[in-house]
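Figure 3 (text version): structure tokens given as input.
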């Protein structure tokens, strides 16, 4: 086998000979030089075929240009394209969800929809009712939502006087509510506002305990203690969607059906009966909205 140095010497000698030959024979050394180079690189050709996937001699059946191999190659390309489209579809779904969540946040932060009336809570309230120092003179009317920060407190109920109003606490008189249970922000992916986990549920008030219960969630629904619960009901407290209802304090298999269902217990983040000041969300023109047509409200 010729090494690189020997090949160079052979080629140089052949070109020296070519210079001494008549013109009609000058091509002979060139042919010989080409043969020498081809012979020198012969051992590398199998490696070259393995690297580039070509098989000019047709010695590898898997690399022959046959209809079966062409179809197989086309199928591989199609599968690669399907995988790319799936990835793109997943990214688009995440984008849509994030845009929807941004819309909810903007709706809750749109302060133009409501006039926020701050009211002092008077002492002496009982039976799950708060007495306020502000009333109809400031546009307060039955049915309006009352909040404390991002926490839902309750609704204004009768009686409402010019300078007084009553509020029924959400932990005492709320109907069944649709909610969204989401993981804490600490679990979010970096740079994303989309929760790492979220589950839609419907909770029922246990007025005696002041807790909200969801007992129809499947065991596959990933709900954990410490998750935040937000209002998502389009009929009851529709103007408070996006406000906090509370935090999950218990998530365990349902005793009556422990193999399929779990029981989730939610508690308000604040003792609503001990608040000193609250905010009443007064709709435009001071009118209370009907439960089925209330706009998506603004938090303080």
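Below: residues designed for each position.
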């Amino acid at each position: 086998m010729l090494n690189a140095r020997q090949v160079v010497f052979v080629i140089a000698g052949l070109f020296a000979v070519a210079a001494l030959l008549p013109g009609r024979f000058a091509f002979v050394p060139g042919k010989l030089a080409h043969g020498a180079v081809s012979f020198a690189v012969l051992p590398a050709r199998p490696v070259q075929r393995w690297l580039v996937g070509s098989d000019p001699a047709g010695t590898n059946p898997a690399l022959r240009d046959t209809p079966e191999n062409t179809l197989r190659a086309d199928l591989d390309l199609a599968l690669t394209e399907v995988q790319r489209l799936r990835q793109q579809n997943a990214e688009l779904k995440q984008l849509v969800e994030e845009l929807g969540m941004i819309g909810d946040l903007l709706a809750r932060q749109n302060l133009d929809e409501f006039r926020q009336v701050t009211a002092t809570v008077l002492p002496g309230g009982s039976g799950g009712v708060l007495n306020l120092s502000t009333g109809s003179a400031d546009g307060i009317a039955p049915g309006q939502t009352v909040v404390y920060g991002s926490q839902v407190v309750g609704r204004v109920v009768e009686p409402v006087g010019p300078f007084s109003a009553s509020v029924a606490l959400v932990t005492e008189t709320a109907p069944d509510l649709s909610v969204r249970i989401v993981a804490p922000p600490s679990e979010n992916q970096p740079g994303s506002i989309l929760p790492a986990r979220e589950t839609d549920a419907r909770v029922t008030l246990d007025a005696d305990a002041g807790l909200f219960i969801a007992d129809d969630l499947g065991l596959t629904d990933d709900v954990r203690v410490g998750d935040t619960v937000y209002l998502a009901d389009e009929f009851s407290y529709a103007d408070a969607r996006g406000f906090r209802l509370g935090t999950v304090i218990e998530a365990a298999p349902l005793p009556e059906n422990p193999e399929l269902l779990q029981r989730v217990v939610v508690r308000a983040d604040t003792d609503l009966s001990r608040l000193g000041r609250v905010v009443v969300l007064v709709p435009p023109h001071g009118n209370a909205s009907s439960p089925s047509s209330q706009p998506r409200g603004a938090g303080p």
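The chain has five helices and twelve strands.
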